[in-house]
Structures are given as structure tokens and as C-alpha cells.
Amino acid sequence: MSDSLSDSDIVALDRRHVWHPYTQEYTAPEPLVASSGQGARIVLGDGRPLIDLVSSWWVNLHGHAHPEIVRAVAEQAARLEQVIFADFTHAPAARLAAGLAAILPGDLDRVFYSDNGSTAVEVALKVALQFFANRGEAGRTRLLAFEGGYHGDTVGAMSVGKSSGYFRAWENLLFPVNMLPYPATFLGDGEVESREAAAYEALERELTDDVAAVIIEPLIQGAAGMRMCRPEFLKGLAERVRAAGALLIFDEVMTGFGRTGDLFACLKAGVQPDMVCLSKGLTGGFLPMGATVVREPIHQAFLGQSLRQAFLHGHSYTANPLGCAAGLASLALLLDPDCTRRRAEIEAIHRDRLAALGGRWGFFRPRLAGTVAAVDLGDGGYDSADGPRIKRFFLERGFIMRPMGPVAYFLPPYCLEPADLHRAWDTLEAAVS
Ligand SMILES: *Cc1c(COP(=O)(O)O)cnc(C)c1O
Fold first, then answer.
1. What DSSP string runs through 168-217?
2. What's the gap in Å between 360 CA and the centre of ligand 1?
3. Do 242 and 176 contact (CB within 8 A), yes or no?
4. Which atom of ligand 1 has the smallest separation from the CA of 149?
5. 116 lines ligand 1 (CB under 6 A)
6. Given the CA of residue 121, which atom of ligand 1 is nearest to it?
7. Residue 379 scores a pLDDT above 90
8. What are 153-174's pLDDT values in tens digits?
9. Which of 254, 277, 283, 286 gets mutated to test ligand 1 (max ligand atoms within 8 A of its CB)?
10. What is the rounded distance in angstroms from the CA atom of residue 114 to the CA atom of residue 121?
């Protein structure tokens, strides 16, 4: 049907009936009409290709319309598109859970499927609280999170992410969460250790015996503006949380599936969290799906004769077979040595280009973790005027780039060609000068 509509028809319908996320539609330019995708490119209705430097909001791993994922989804759709996931299971769900358990560290072996990153976080928070209640430690109810952290847009996720600053309209709805200082660092930072010491001090003060869980975006706070911390900090965090008897939740919704260099940030940091939240890259960017992966001993606390001891939580589309099939195909591509090579290549280019910016006017706090590179172009907030100007500059040169306030970052699909990545960095330098 869309093929018979012109781009301006589509925009007219959109303007009349569609409500866009995180957008002030009154002042925003008309939305672009995406008509197809291939590799790192989104193709507009008029045939103009745009290189996707943000992996379409951090979800795409292997490029758009990747033929192997297309085939896996099509075959699964023709076989079984959906089945109720209480009383039933199916091959893609079982195989994907086993595949995730195999690449996550230690006994992170139990997968609870949901629909997106926010629900993956809600599930982790609810599991943490019920875990202690089931064990007769109902006094452990407090949650700790980090300043600037973002964990999604549902009420629990907003509560642990409230210092991100996006949720003022719903403040009265949010439950209390104690916020810890986050020791953000960058290349050439000489003061990170004192910042980490201050964070540990606050953590030790807050880690009393009423804390159920601590949640963090490990290595990179994404929506806060790609604020990075050192792997060493996560090690010290894990030791302290464990010693206090609380659970450690890693929100790897963005950092999962190879973004930070290793397959997961927890592997890069050499830390075993108690729960890992996954979503964005889980299906290679094809279908909305989330997963909360839990250490097996936590799952054991939900087993018993009473239904009340079980986890009474679920979503209509839990473990949707199409999403699981996409996840399996995406995982196979991720584990291919060719993907590892491409990710290393992207990181090496990022590193060289960030080093070349060293000391140049207009670029502050350069930072890098795997395929994610970021630099501050000023000190404004999320609504800084620089962001839309830079976005437009990139768009005019054939790139999708979406600064967060004054923070410019690249988080490309792993198939991005080195020459295209170099052109993106050239464009950033030109934008600043
Ligand atoms: C995007 C994101 C979420 C929320 O995921 P949705 O799928 O948008 O609900 C949660 N945590 C982190 C770290 C994210 O980057």
C-alpha cells in the first residue's frame, strides 16, 4: 500500500495521525520518509541514501535488511508467528536462551523474555525485590542507581533513571531511589581515580542492609551523552555490592552484543553481575524484544509449591518466535570472526581520529569504548541549539547523526565501511570549523 503513496502523501498522513517519540512536533522539521535499507544505508523515498551512524537508535548491528536475518524471520513467520508462552515453548526461544547463556559469564543461565529495554529493566527490578521477599528478607527494598543513568520510559525504569532529567512531568509517580555519583572519564583524564574514590565512598555509605539492588549502565551511560567509566570501577562496584549482600544489575540494553569491544560490557570489565538486561541489539534491530538474564540461584528462589512464590509477570508477546528467530540469526552473525574483525577495525579508526583531534579547539572530553566514540562540542544541555545544527549539517552530507545536546557520537552498524567512517569523522571536523 505504501508503494502507491507519494512521499508527500505519506508525510501528510503522518502529520495528521502519527505522534513521534522524543520530538517537539511543533518545531521539528518534516520527518524523512524511509523507504528501504541496505547495509549501513537507509534509502529515502526519493532514492537518496543516508549512512546510518547511530544504528537507528542503537538497535541495528549488522546493517539494514540483512539477508540472513530476513530469511530467518520469513521462514519462522511461515511456520509459527506466535504462541502463548505460558504452557508452551518453542525451538527459537529455547535455542536463543541457550545461546545467550553460553556467551554470558558464569551462571547467568536463566532468560526471562519481554518486549523492549524498559521492560527488561522492570523485570530485573521486580525480580530483585521478589527474590528477597521469597527468601524472607522482605526488608531489602531499597534500590540504588547512578546519576545521569537512563534505563527506559516505564515507571520503574524512570524511577531508577530519574536523574537523566527527561521525566519531570511524572515526578510524583516515581518511587524513591538513591542516586550515586558516576565517575565519568575520558581519554587523557588525570583525575578519574579521585572521582572513583568519591563514588565508592558514597556507595559504601548507601549500601546498608535494606538495599535490594544496584543498577548501572556498565562502561557507557548512553542517553546521558555516552558518558564512560573505567572497567576497574565496575570491578570495585561489584565487590562492594556483593559484600553488602545486594544484587548487581547491569543494564546492557545499549552496551550488549559487541558495542564496547567485547560481546558484553560485563565481559570487558571481568565482572559477573547478578542480572543483565538486554534489548536493542538482541534481534539485530529487526524486532522489538527484551531479555533479562538472571543467575540461576536467583531463579531457584522462585521455585516452590505456591503460585505466589512464582514470578507473576508476563507480556502478551513474551518470547515472540519471530523475535527469537531474528535473535538467533543475529547472534550467529555476531559470533562470526568477520564481525569481530570489523568491530576491531571501527574501534581502531575511532581511536586514530580521536587522537588526531587531541587538543584541537572545540572538541572536549574525547572518549571511546569499542565501536562507540563520543566527544563534547560544548557545555550545553540536551536541548542545546548545537545539536539540531550539527544534525542538519550531517544530513546535508548524507549521514544520519543525532547529537545529544552538545555531545557528538558515532555508534554505527558493524558493517559500516572504513571509508564511510572516515568521511563521517571528516564531516564532524568540518562541522566544528
Ligand atoms: C534504550 C535504553 C533502554 C530502554 O530501552 P527501550 O527499548 O527504548 O525501552 C534502557 N536502558 C538503556 C541503557 C538504554 O539505552
1. GGGGGGPPP-EEE----B-TT-S-HHHHHHHHHHHHHHH--TTEEEEEE-
2. 33
3. no
4. 13
5. yes
6. 10
7. no
8. 999 999 999 988 889 999 999 9
9. 254
10. 10
Q: Which ligand 1 atom is at minimum distance from the Cα of 157? A: 10
pLDDT at 165 (0 to 100): 81
What is the Cα Rg of the chain in Å? Answer: 22
Candidate from 59, 116, 118, 221 with most ligand 1 atoms within 8 A of CB, to mutate: 118
Cell of 169: 512531568
| Residue 346 and residue 372 in contact, taking contact as beta carbons nearer than 8 Å | no
Active site residues: 22, 150, 251, 280
CA–centroid distance, residue 124 to ligand 1 (Å): 13
* Same fold across 7-53+337-432 and 70-334: no
Torsion region of 25: left, alpha or beta (phi above 0 gives left; psi -120 to 50 gives alpha): alpha
In this structure, the residue with its CA closest to atom 15 of ligand 1 is 254
The answer, as to whether pTM is greater than 0.90, is yes
Domain map (residue ranges) of the chain: 7-53+337-432, 70-334
Least-confidence region, from 53-57, 359-363, 402-406: 359-363
How many Å separate Cα 418 from the centre of its chain? 24
- What separation in Å is there between the alpha carbon of 47 and the centre of ligand 1? 31
Cell numbers of 401, please?
547523526
Q: What is the pLDDT of residue 358?
A: 77
Whether residue 222 has its Cβ less than 6 Å from ligand 1: yes
Q: What 3-state DSSP class applies to 399?
A: strand
Q: Which fold has domain 70-334?
A: Aspartate Aminotransferase; domain 2 (3.40.640)
User: Can you name the CATH fold of 7-53+337-432?
Assistant: Aspartate Aminotransferase, domain 1 (3.90.1150)
